[in-house]
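Homework-ish question, so no full write-ups if that breaks the rules, but can someone show me the predicted structure for this set?
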Amino acid sequence: MNNFSPTLATRLMLALAVVLSAFPLYWMLVIASRTNADAVAVPPPFLPGGNLGENIVAVLNNEDAKFLLGLTNSFIVSSIVTVSVVIISTLAGFAFANLTFKGRGVLLVLVLLTMAVPLQQMGVVPLYRLMVSLEWTGTLKAVILPYLLNGFGVFLMTQYTRQAVPMELVEAARVDGAATLRIWWNVVLPAVRPGMAVLGINTFMLMWNDFMWPLIVLTPDNPTVQIAITSLNARFSTNYTLIFAGTALSIIPLIAVFVAFGRQIVGGLMEGAVKA
Amino acid sequence: MSSTPFNGRRGYSHRRDRPPGRRWRSRLDVKAMPYALVSPYFLLFAAFGLFPLAFTLYYSLYDYDLAGTVEWTGLGNYTALLGDEDFWNAVVNTVSMFVIATVPQMLLALLLANGLNKRFRFRLPIRMSVLLPLVTSVVAVAVVFTQLYARDWGLVNWVLSWFGVDKTNWRAERIPSWIAIATMVDWRWTGYNAIIFLAGMQTIPRDLYEAAAIDGASRRRQFWQITLPMLRPTMIFVVLNSTIGGLTLFSEPTTFYNGNVDGGSQGQFQTVAMFIVKQGFREFDYGYAAAAAWLLFLLILIGAAINFLFVRRIGGTR
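A: Not a homework solution, just the prediction itself:
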């Protein structure tokens, strides 16, 4: 008797899990590709229709929804934040993992503590007031700046660097006369690239998904994609095909990332969890 | 374990060949560079983390009104909140949805992880597909679920009607709305938690199971007596994560009401995070919102402590 071969019940459960995971996305495609009459029909349609292109064009062309602007804005915000978080985290991670300096332990504990505070809810009022006094509300700067750092990123890269870059390697580079920044660039960065990929994907998805802060600090005429969906939803509350076409558009970048890096996402999550 | 090159004999001799200027510069590099490397994080944290936290405390002690007058009120906001029915409504909603969502989610995730831990074909694609919900945008998911839960043509009511269940108005009624929102949360996070549990399960040595099997322990017994107790550290991580996520719930219930933070006509699914946004950015009572934010933090601490104690007991008696 082998504990590691699945029973029939287990196989069925896994199959069900796969179906349930995919169904709402499939459903999104079904409604996004149909007419509005189909979307409110009982019994509902279960197969995609032929109107997907038409509906998407209608969403993109709708002046009120600003959907294209929302997509562009989300792309800008997510990319800038991702680059910043990855750079800041690899720098700090290298220092915490491979360099000795006074206060290292205390500072690392500080980083861990900052991870436990729900900053988004806790700091929302003063951050908003700060953005008002800088006259940045309604601009992308207001969305980008609070997210340029990420305690989880520093923690992750510290763990990753510790494992991927042996001390001997750093010392050898130093003996050869390399300065710290040069070691970071030539020795550390190539070795921690998989960790950077996981952190980057993670950050990009997080920013693409961010909803509460943009809802507060942006206006519907300069939205991120999530805000654009919400105003589609509020403006055309009965036109499901339009809403679903927009919603489907909004997840394309995430699905693309997932298709390209799904293996790394699974691996990264599993590695991170074991080390945490 | 020291990283300074001056300890190694090889390093020293190399270094002696250099002109004194470079030696000084490299000593500065070794001493100061680490601080330079970690400083971007701490500088930004001071600006966008520490500053807001401190000011949230400061704001919470003042009364702001719509006209823009500001008045010191001490703990007035806090006492007012504790007597505010709407705030308690939000607390009850948040905690209820958290419990309704988390309990089945943990059980399902454990079960799913146990299944994913077996040997079967297409293992990677199946593991990836249970993560698919996580990479989908929260708002998109909430939009889809809102349609699935529509009263007259929603798929959920249609399927329930096969079993003779009457049409439920998922958005208008209190407990149905909690269930609807809880399923959105569960759909998104169960696979993720299963993958984390799976990672924990893979660190459990296989010979433990082999020994148990030789002793005649059934699979079910092995799960309860080996897997669960060995999984406790992972469980603490997952449960704490879910607690923070669950108690700060915002996107799903807000989208469930077309992006409105009232949480339904009677506030039946308004969460504390939505209450904060409503007070701060619809009523412009910054002090009240800030005080509510601190009470939310307190709620999270209490929730985390309860869960921590609870998880520590799981499988603790052997």
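Now go work out the reasoning yourself. Hint: The mean pLDDT of chain A is 89.
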